[in-house]
Structures are given as C-alpha cells and as structure tokens.
Specification:
This protein is an alpha/beta fold and 246 residues long. The chain contains eight helices and seven strands. The chain is 41% helix and 15% strand.
Length: 246
C-alpha cells in the first residue's frame, strides 16, 4: 500500500489521532503537509506544516490554491470539550458543528480541483459518536453523523474521479485521554468495555486511513470503515440476571 510521491494533506495533523495519521502516511512514502492553528511540539522529519484556521473559509481556499498538487485529503481536525446541552447556548454548540462538519466541507470543496485532476481521494475522520447517543458531546455527535452522510453524498457526486470514505473511529488513547476517561485506572476500566480489550492507538487509525487512500481500496467509495475494536458491549447483557458466563 505504498503511496510513494503522493501529496497528502492532514488537517489537524499535529497531535493525537492526526499525528498518528500523519506518521502513517509519511511511513508509506507520501509527501505530507499538516495544517492546524498551532505547530506540532515535536515535528516529524520530512513533514511540512502550515498554520491554518480551518474555520476561516478564505484562508482555507488560499491554502489549497497554493498547493502545486494534491492526491489525498484527510479531514481530521475536530474535537469537543465535555459540555451538556443546557450548559451552553446554541451559538457555542454551533461552533463545535462548524469545526467538525462545516470545516471539512470547506476544505473538501477547496481541494476538489486538485483531487479531480489527480484522481485522488478524501478520508473523513468520523466517530462512533455519530451513530449513537452522545450525552455531554451532543453537538459533536450530530456533526459526525452529518459528516458521514456528507461523505456518502460526495462519493456519488464526485465519482468516478474522486473517492470519498469515512473512518468511523472509536475510543483512542492520546495525550488527552485523561480528559475523557480519567487517569490510568479510568483508561483501564474503559478499555475493558471494548471487545478487543484496549483503546485504539493513533497508529491504528493511521493504518486504516492509508488503506482507504491507497490503490488497495481503489473500488471503495462512499464507505464507512469502523475502527472501534469491536464496538461496545450492550449494557443489557451485563444488567441481565441470566445467561452469565461462568
């Protein structure tokens, strides 16, 4: 699944999942450019960085217009703090939707002409939050649900020259995991709810993104690939008083 010489842009590719995706593409031989508001604390050798606020449409268009070519766009930038719906006004929640849904649309449209010329692909970094209730991150879940649907529509409108797919990502262990799950004890406890027994590593997401962008996935478009370790064990199984494993 080598991507030698391919030009890849990873939005928000400086830390966490984005850094894992960036590293995977670089190791596959691609020329990778990351863009985010802040530079990486530890730059990866051979990986370019451009400062960019993805919520600024004019700046996004200028960024892509300045690229000589582009083969793959990974829309990774996103995220949300824990915030219950009634703890903020609609405008604050709308900013989460702007970052996680509108910004990937803006970037994809700005990148389209490059991708159409190169017969390239878009990889959306989605989330399991888009397919289940997400208390404490409802706006984020709604945005990720929209992102997955947007990708399917893009895949139809932009075929056959541009492929568009979504990685539906589960829980990932990053430098910010403690904010979501607590310390090591909390992470271990959460890991036990995953069928594979652990949280994903950023490299797991990176490997899946490289696959979707490679020729090995040449006939895959409009698809949603779940990278979630088997999902979540249904809570009712543990609450029931029968059919327990001995």
């Amino acid at each position: 699944m080598g991507l030698d010489g391919k030009v890849v842009v990873v939005t928000g590719g400086t830390r966490g999942v984005g850094a894992g995706v960036t590293r995977a593409f670089a190791e596959a031989g691609a020329q990778v450019v990351t863009c985010a508001r802040r530079p990486p604390e530890v730059p990866l050798p051979g990986v370019g960085f451009r400062p960019l606020d993805l919520r600024d449409p004019a700046a996004v268009r200028d960024f892509f217009a300045a690229l000589p070519r582009l083969d793959v766009l990974v829309n990774n930038a996103g995220g949300t703090p824990y915030r219950r719906l009634t703890d903020a006004d609609a405008e604050r929640h709308a900013r989460v939707i702007e970052l996680n849904l509108v910004a990937p649309l803006t970037a994809s449209l700005a990148a389209y002409e490059h991708l159409e010329r190169s017969r390239g692909s878009v990889v959306m970094i989605g989330s399991v939050s888009g397919g289940r209730p997400s208390p404490g991150s409802a706006a984020y879940g709604a945005a990720k649900a929209g992102l997955e649907n947007l990708a399917r529509s893009m895949a139809v409108e932009w075929a056959p020259r541009v492929r568009v797919n979504t990685l539906v990502v589960g829980m990932v262990r990053t430098e910010l995991s403690h904010l979501h799950y607590g310390g090591e004890e909390g992470i271990a406890s959460v890991s036990r709810t995953v069928p594979l027994g652990r949280l994903a590593e950023p490299s797991d997401i990176g490997a899946a993104a490289v696959f979707l962008a490679s020729d090995a996935a040449a006939y895959i478009s409009g698809a949603s690939l779940h990278v979630h370790g088997g999902g979540e064990r249904p809570a009712f199984l543990d609450a029931a008083t029968v059919n327990k494993d001995s």
